[in-house]
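dumping this here so i dont lose it
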């Protein structure tokens, strides 16, 4: 990846929840491209998506504008690809108390082998206590090329955050089925 002159910014999108965005210039990738990570600042901070290895320094710089990178407690992600997990081991090196937090299948087939530290394998509905209560609700794969995880803050009537990904090869019907299933899960919360 040619990351010539990436621009990284960090924005607080909800109280203590930050989006880190690194824009890759159009000269490096046609029409440009943006990588995003999410940082939850709490007693036990969580970084959602590690970013690719080559952007680690830029993302770390953004994290350190909010909190010391060494204070991260969990690194989590929606699925295992370089843009979500490429820098995982770099984060584990700078944050000695951090654990990868993922679903049981990801822990078994990918993260348990890839990460330099054992993952925290989460069951459906298992909670991570970050200070406030954050709940990961991994969902079974229900359409090809689509994965989904829901995070919500449990101690208030606050919003539910939907984190999802799907590939361009997923058809329109798959996307509708995916969103319908996600809305049904959220309605039952």
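and the seq i came up w/
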């Amino acid at each position: 990846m040619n990351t010539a002159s990436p621009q990284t910014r960090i924005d607080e999108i909800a109280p203590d929840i930050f989006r880190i965005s690194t824009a890759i210039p159009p000269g490096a990738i046609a029409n440009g491209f943006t990588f995003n990570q999410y940082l939850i600042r709490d007693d036990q901070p969580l970084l959602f998506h590690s970013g690719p290895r080559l952007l680690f320094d830029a993302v770390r710089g953004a994290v350190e504008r909010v909190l010391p990178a060494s204070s991260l407690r969990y690194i989590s992600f929606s699925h295992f690809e370089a843009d979500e997990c490429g820098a995982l081991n770099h984060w584990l090196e700078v944050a000695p108390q951090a654990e990868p937090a993922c679903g049981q299948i990801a822990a078994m087939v990918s993260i348990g082998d890839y990460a330099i530290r054992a993952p925290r394998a989460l069951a459906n509905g298992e909670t991570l206590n970050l200070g406030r209560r954050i709940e990961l609700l991994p969902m079974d794969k229900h359409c090809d090329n689509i994965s989904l995880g829901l995070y919500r803050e449990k101690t208030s009537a606050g919003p539910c955050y939907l984190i999802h990904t799907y590939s361009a090869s997923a058809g329109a019907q798959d996307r509708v089925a995916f969103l319908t299933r996600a809305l049904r899960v959220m309605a039952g919360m």
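The mean pLDDT is 78.
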